[in-house]
Protein: anthranilate phosphoribosyltransferase
Amino acid sequence: MQMRDAINAVMRREDLSFDAMHALMRQIMTGDASDAQIGGLLVGLAMKGESAIEISAAAQVMRELMKRVELKAENVVDIVGTGGDGANLFNVSTAASFVAAAAGAHVAKHGNRSVSSSSGSADLFDVAGIYLDLKPEQVARCIEQVGVGFMFAPNHHPAMRYAIGPRREMGVRTLFNILGPLTNPAGAPNQVLGVYAAELVPLMAEVLKTLGSRHVMVVHSDDGLDEISLAGPTLVAELKEGEITQYTITPEELGIERQRLATLKANSAEDSLRLVKAALSGEGAAADMVALNAGAALYCSGVADTLKEGVMVAQDAQASKLPLEKLKELSHFTSVFKH
Structure:
Protein backbone atom coordinates (compact mmCIF):
# COMPACT_ATOMS: atom_id res chain seq x y z
CA MET A 1 0.00 0.00 0.00
CA GLN A 2 1.29 3.43 -0.95
CA MET A 3 1.58 6.05 1.79
CA ARG A 4 -0.97 8.26 -0.01
CA ASP A 5 -3.50 5.40 -0.14
CA ALA A 6 -2.92 4.61 3.54
CA ILE A 7 -3.51 8.23 4.58
CA ASN A 8 -6.76 8.29 2.59
CA ALA A 9 -7.85 4.97 4.13
CA VAL A 10 -7.35 6.11 7.72
CA MET A 11 -9.07 9.43 6.91
CA ARG A 12 -12.07 7.26 5.93
CA ARG A 13 -11.67 5.61 9.37
CA GLU A 14 -10.58 2.28 7.87
CA ASP A 15 -8.17 0.15 9.89
CA LEU A 16 -4.95 -0.92 8.19
CA SER A 17 -3.85 -4.56 8.07
CA PHE A 18 -0.80 -5.76 10.02
CA ASP A 19 1.23 -6.15 6.81
CA ALA A 20 0.25 -2.71 5.45
CA MET A 21 1.07 -0.97 8.74
CA HIS A 22 4.34 -2.90 9.03
CA ALA A 23 5.42 -1.77 5.56
CA LEU A 24 4.43 1.86 6.20
CA MET A 25 6.22 1.97 9.54
CA ARG A 26 9.31 0.48 7.95
CA GLN A 27 9.20 3.27 5.35
CA ILE A 28 9.08 5.86 8.14
CA MET A 29 11.82 4.26 10.23
CA THR A 30 14.26 3.85 7.35
CA GLY A 31 13.95 7.44 6.11
CA ASP A 32 11.84 6.65 3.03
CA ALA A 33 8.83 8.80 4.01
CA SER A 34 8.63 12.59 3.83
CA ASP A 35 7.79 14.70 6.88
CA ALA A 36 4.42 15.55 5.31
CA GLN A 37 3.63 11.85 4.78
CA ILE A 38 4.64 10.98 8.35
CA GLY A 39 2.52 13.81 9.75
CA GLY A 40 -0.47 12.92 7.59
CA LEU A 41 -0.43 9.26 8.57
CA LEU A 42 0.09 9.93 12.29
CA VAL A 43 -2.72 12.50 12.48
CA GLY A 44 -5.06 10.28 10.45
CA LEU A 45 -4.40 7.33 12.76
CA ALA A 46 -4.87 9.48 15.86
CA MET A 47 -8.20 10.85 14.61
CA LYS A 48 -9.44 7.37 13.68
CA GLY A 49 -8.05 5.76 16.83
CA GLU A 50 -5.19 3.30 16.41
CA SER A 51 -6.22 -0.37 16.39
CA ALA A 52 -4.39 -3.09 18.32
CA ILE A 53 -3.19 -4.55 15.01
CA GLU A 54 -1.78 -1.20 13.82
CA ILE A 55 0.02 -0.58 17.12
CA SER A 56 1.39 -4.15 17.14
CA ALA A 57 2.75 -3.81 13.61
CA ALA A 58 4.40 -0.46 14.36
CA ALA A 59 5.96 -1.83 17.56
CA GLN A 60 7.20 -4.89 15.69
CA VAL A 61 9.12 -2.68 13.24
CA MET A 62 10.70 -0.71 16.08
CA ARG A 63 11.72 -3.98 17.74
CA GLU A 64 13.29 -5.22 14.51
CA LEU A 65 15.38 -2.05 14.15
CA MET A 66 16.39 -1.43 17.78
CA LYS A 67 19.78 -2.10 19.37
CA ARG A 68 19.08 -5.07 21.61
CA VAL A 69 20.27 -5.84 25.12
CA GLU A 70 20.95 -9.58 25.34
CA LEU A 71 20.23 -11.00 28.80
CA LYS A 72 20.80 -14.38 30.43
CA ALA A 73 18.82 -13.34 33.53
CA GLU A 74 15.47 -14.89 34.45
CA ASN A 75 12.35 -13.05 35.75
CA VAL A 76 13.14 -9.89 33.74
CA VAL A 77 10.54 -7.15 34.16
CA ASP A 78 10.05 -3.55 33.04
CA ILE A 79 8.10 -0.92 35.00
CA VAL A 80 7.18 1.85 32.62
CA GLY A 81 4.56 4.48 31.85
CA THR A 82 3.49 6.23 28.68
CA GLY A 83 3.71 9.55 30.52
CA GLY A 84 1.27 12.24 29.51
CA ASP A 85 -0.89 11.99 32.63
CA GLY A 86 -0.05 15.58 33.63
CA ALA A 87 0.09 14.70 37.34
CA ASN A 88 3.64 15.95 38.03
CA LEU A 89 4.35 13.23 40.57
CA PHE A 90 7.86 12.10 41.50
CA ASN A 91 9.23 9.27 39.38
CA VAL A 92 7.30 6.34 40.84
CA SER A 93 8.23 3.71 38.24
CA THR A 94 11.96 4.40 38.62
CA ALA A 95 11.75 4.13 42.42
CA ALA A 96 9.73 0.93 42.05
CA SER A 97 12.50 -0.50 39.84
CA PHE A 98 15.03 -0.31 42.68
CA VAL A 99 12.60 -1.83 45.18
CA ALA A 100 11.79 -4.72 42.82
CA ALA A 101 15.51 -5.30 42.18
CA ALA A 102 16.21 -5.32 45.92
CA ALA A 103 13.51 -7.99 46.31
CA GLY A 104 15.00 -10.29 43.67
CA ALA A 105 13.64 -9.25 40.27
CA HIS A 106 15.85 -8.31 37.31
CA VAL A 107 14.58 -4.94 36.12
CA ALA A 108 15.26 -3.82 32.55
CA LYS A 109 14.07 -0.20 32.78
CA HIS A 110 13.43 1.49 29.46
CA GLY A 111 12.83 5.23 29.47
CA ASN A 112 13.53 8.71 28.25
CA ARG A 113 13.46 12.31 29.37
CA SER A 114 10.31 13.86 30.76
CA VAL A 115 6.97 13.68 28.95
CA SER A 116 4.33 14.36 31.61
CA SER A 117 6.29 15.50 34.62
CA SER A 118 9.15 17.68 35.73
CA SER A 119 11.33 14.59 35.77
CA GLY A 120 11.45 11.62 33.40
CA SER A 121 13.45 8.56 34.40
CA ALA A 122 16.50 9.79 32.48
CA ASP A 123 16.35 13.20 34.20
CA LEU A 124 16.23 11.47 37.58
CA PHE A 125 19.18 9.20 36.80
CA ASP A 126 21.20 12.26 35.77
CA VAL A 127 20.81 13.93 39.17
CA ALA A 128 21.35 10.62 40.98
CA GLY A 129 24.77 10.36 39.33
CA ILE A 130 23.89 7.35 37.20
CA TYR A 131 25.67 7.34 33.84
CA LEU A 132 23.23 6.88 30.94
CA ASP A 133 25.35 6.62 27.82
CA LEU A 134 25.91 2.88 28.02
CA LYS A 135 26.49 0.26 25.33
CA PRO A 136 23.95 -2.61 25.23
CA GLU A 137 26.43 -5.08 26.77
CA GLN A 138 27.10 -2.64 29.63
CA VAL A 139 23.37 -2.33 30.35
CA ALA A 140 23.18 -6.13 30.39
CA ARG A 141 25.92 -6.25 33.03
CA CYS A 142 24.01 -3.73 35.18
CA ILE A 143 20.83 -5.82 35.03
CA GLU A 144 22.58 -9.12 35.69
CA GLN A 145 24.95 -7.93 38.42
CA VAL A 146 23.10 -5.06 40.15
CA GLY A 147 19.57 -6.29 39.40
CA VAL A 148 18.52 -3.12 37.58
CA GLY A 149 19.72 -1.35 34.46
CA PHE A 150 18.50 1.62 32.46
CA MET A 151 18.15 1.68 28.68
CA PHE A 152 18.07 5.29 27.52
CA ALA A 153 15.65 5.17 24.57
CA PRO A 154 17.63 7.35 22.09
CA ASN A 155 20.64 5.01 22.43
CA HIS A 156 18.57 1.97 21.44
CA HIS A 157 16.18 3.38 18.84
CA PRO A 158 18.32 5.32 16.33
CA ALA A 159 15.63 4.88 13.64
CA MET A 160 13.36 7.17 15.67
CA ARG A 161 15.34 10.14 14.36
CA TYR A 162 13.31 10.08 11.15
CA ALA A 163 10.09 10.84 13.03
CA ILE A 164 11.42 13.41 15.51
CA GLY A 165 10.90 16.46 13.25
CA PRO A 166 7.24 15.83 12.34
CA ARG A 167 6.35 14.82 15.92
CA ARG A 168 7.91 17.97 17.37
CA GLU A 169 6.28 20.26 14.80
CA MET A 170 2.81 18.72 15.22
CA GLY A 171 2.88 18.90 19.01
CA VAL A 172 -0.03 16.46 19.37
CA ARG A 173 -0.25 13.00 20.87
CA THR A 174 0.36 10.29 18.28
CA LEU A 175 1.11 6.59 17.94
CA PHE A 176 4.71 7.26 18.97
CA ASN A 177 3.61 8.30 22.48
CA ILE A 178 2.63 4.70 23.21
CA LEU A 179 5.31 2.83 21.24
CA GLY A 180 8.18 3.44 23.69
CA PRO A 181 6.81 1.16 26.43
CA LEU A 182 6.15 -1.56 23.82
CA THR A 183 9.72 -1.66 22.53
CA ASN A 184 11.92 -2.66 25.49
CA PRO A 185 15.40 -3.32 24.06
CA ALA A 186 15.94 -6.21 26.49
CA GLY A 187 12.71 -7.82 25.29
CA ALA A 188 11.38 -7.93 28.87
CA PRO A 189 8.54 -10.49 28.73
CA ASN A 190 7.00 -9.21 31.96
CA GLN A 191 5.84 -5.66 32.46
CA VAL A 192 3.90 -3.19 34.55
CA LEU A 193 2.72 -0.65 32.00
CA GLY A 194 0.96 2.55 33.04
CA VAL A 195 -1.10 4.35 30.39
CA TYR A 196 -2.48 7.91 30.24
CA ALA A 197 -6.10 6.98 29.37
CA ALA A 198 -8.53 4.26 30.50
CA GLU A 199 -9.38 3.24 26.93
CA LEU A 200 -5.73 2.26 26.38
CA VAL A 201 -5.84 -0.35 29.19
CA PRO A 202 -7.52 -3.22 27.25
CA LEU A 203 -5.97 -2.05 23.97
CA MET A 204 -2.37 -2.21 25.20
CA ALA A 205 -2.96 -5.59 26.86
CA GLU A 206 -4.19 -6.89 23.50
CA VAL A 207 -1.12 -5.44 21.75
CA LEU A 208 1.28 -7.06 24.22
CA LYS A 209 -0.52 -10.38 23.79
CA THR A 210 0.00 -10.11 20.01
CA LEU A 211 3.68 -9.27 20.58
CA GLY A 212 4.18 -12.37 22.77
CA SER A 213 4.51 -10.91 26.28
CA ARG A 214 4.31 -13.37 29.19
CA HIS A 215 2.87 -11.61 32.26
CA VAL A 216 1.76 -7.98 32.09
CA MET A 217 -0.38 -5.58 34.10
CA VAL A 218 -1.60 -2.54 32.12
CA VAL A 219 -2.84 0.09 34.58
CA HIS A 220 -4.62 3.46 34.69
CA SER A 221 -6.02 4.93 37.89
CA ASP A 222 -9.39 6.61 38.40
CA ASP A 223 -7.53 9.81 39.30
CA GLY A 224 -5.81 9.78 35.91
CA LEU A 225 -2.35 8.38 36.70
CA ASP A 226 -0.25 6.11 34.51
CA GLU A 227 0.56 4.17 37.73
CA ILE A 228 -1.25 2.18 40.40
CA SER A 229 -2.65 4.95 42.59
CA LEU A 230 -2.39 5.38 46.33
CA ALA A 231 -5.41 7.70 46.29
CA GLY A 232 -8.13 5.51 44.78
CA PRO A 233 -9.09 2.64 42.47
CA THR A 234 -6.92 1.58 39.52
CA LEU A 235 -8.18 -0.18 36.39
CA VAL A 236 -6.06 -3.20 35.40
CA ALA A 237 -5.90 -5.44 32.34
CA GLU A 238 -3.74 -8.42 33.24
CA LEU A 239 -2.22 -10.65 30.57
CA LYS A 240 -1.15 -14.01 31.99
CA GLU A 241 -0.64 -17.30 30.15
CA GLY A 242 -2.23 -15.88 27.02
CA GLU A 243 -5.44 -14.76 28.76
CA ILE A 244 -6.49 -11.16 29.49
CA THR A 245 -8.61 -10.35 32.54
CA GLN A 246 -9.81 -6.87 33.47
CA TYR A 247 -10.53 -5.77 37.03
CA THR A 248 -10.15 -2.89 39.50
CA ILE A 249 -7.84 -2.76 42.53
CA THR A 250 -7.72 -0.42 45.53
CA PRO A 251 -4.88 0.33 47.96
CA GLU A 252 -6.94 -1.06 50.88
CA GLU A 253 -7.30 -4.53 49.39
CA LEU A 254 -3.50 -4.62 49.01
CA GLY A 255 -2.99 -3.74 52.66
CA ILE A 256 -2.20 -0.05 52.20
CA GLU A 257 -4.16 2.93 53.51
CA ARG A 258 -5.53 5.32 50.88
CA GLN A 259 -3.76 8.69 50.92
CA ARG A 260 -3.87 11.95 48.97
CA LEU A 261 -1.26 12.58 46.27
CA ALA A 262 -0.52 16.22 47.14
CA THR A 263 2.70 15.35 49.00
CA LEU A 264 4.00 13.29 46.06
CA LYS A 265 4.33 16.12 43.53
CA ALA A 266 7.80 17.08 42.29
CA ASN A 267 8.74 20.36 40.60
CA SER A 268 12.21 19.26 39.50
CA ALA A 269 14.43 16.21 39.11
CA GLU A 270 16.02 17.12 42.46
CA ASP A 271 12.58 17.14 44.13
CA SER A 272 11.85 13.80 42.56
CA LEU A 273 15.13 12.31 43.81
CA ARG A 274 14.34 13.41 47.37
CA LEU A 275 10.99 11.60 47.25
CA VAL A 276 12.55 8.57 45.55
CA LYS A 277 15.10 8.24 48.37
CA ALA A 278 12.29 8.48 50.95
CA ALA A 279 10.37 5.79 49.07
CA LEU A 280 13.41 3.50 48.87
CA SER A 281 13.85 3.83 52.64
CA GLY A 282 10.22 3.05 53.48
CA GLU A 283 9.33 6.60 54.54
CA GLY A 284 5.93 8.26 54.14
CA ALA A 285 3.29 8.21 51.41
CA ALA A 286 5.98 7.98 48.71
CA ALA A 287 6.99 4.56 50.08
CA ASP A 288 3.39 3.30 50.00
CA MET A 289 2.87 4.52 46.43
CA VAL A 290 6.06 2.79 45.32
CA ALA A 291 5.25 -0.44 47.22
CA LEU A 292 2.02 -0.78 45.20
CA ASN A 293 3.86 -0.47 41.90
CA ALA A 294 6.94 -2.49 42.87
CA GLY A 295 4.56 -5.15 44.20
CA ALA A 296 2.97 -5.41 40.76
CA ALA A 297 6.42 -5.84 39.19
CA LEU A 298 7.32 -8.58 41.67
CA TYR A 299 4.05 -10.35 40.85
CA CYS A 300 4.55 -10.05 37.08
CA SER A 301 8.18 -11.21 37.30
CA GLY A 302 7.22 -14.31 39.30
CA VAL A 303 9.05 -13.34 42.49
CA ALA A 304 5.63 -13.17 44.21
CA ASP A 305 2.64 -15.45 43.56
CA THR A 306 -0.02 -12.78 44.06
CA LEU A 307 -0.22 -9.01 43.80
CA LYS A 308 -0.85 -8.67 47.54
CA GLU A 309 2.19 -10.82 48.31
CA GLY A 310 4.22 -8.67 45.90
CA VAL A 311 3.29 -5.52 47.85
CA MET A 312 4.29 -7.18 51.14
CA VAL A 313 7.64 -8.32 49.67
CA ALA A 314 8.22 -4.76 48.39
CA GLN A 315 7.52 -3.32 51.85
CA ASP A 316 9.94 -5.80 53.46
CA ALA A 317 12.63 -4.70 50.98
CA GLN A 318 11.96 -1.02 51.77
CA ALA A 319 12.24 -1.70 55.52
CA SER A 320 15.70 -3.24 54.93
CA LYS A 321 16.91 -0.04 53.13
CA LEU A 322 18.37 -2.34 50.44
CA PRO A 323 16.62 -0.43 47.59
CA LEU A 324 18.59 2.71 48.55
CA GLU A 325 21.78 0.64 48.44
CA LYS A 326 20.78 -0.53 44.94
CA LEU A 327 20.56 3.13 43.82
CA LYS A 328 24.08 3.79 45.13
CA GLU A 329 25.34 0.53 43.65
CA LEU A 330 24.05 1.37 40.16
CA SER A 331 25.63 4.84 40.36
CA HIS A 332 28.98 3.30 41.30
CA PHE A 333 28.67 0.48 38.75
CA THR A 334 27.91 2.80 35.81
CA SER A 335 30.67 5.28 36.74
CA VAL A 336 33.21 2.64 35.67
CA PHE A 337 31.85 2.86 32.10
CA LYS A 338 32.41 6.63 31.76
CA HIS A 339 35.97 6.28 30.50
Q: What stands out?
A: The chain has a mean pLDDT of 93. Residues 284-301 form the longest helix (18 residues). The chain has 15 helices and seven strands.
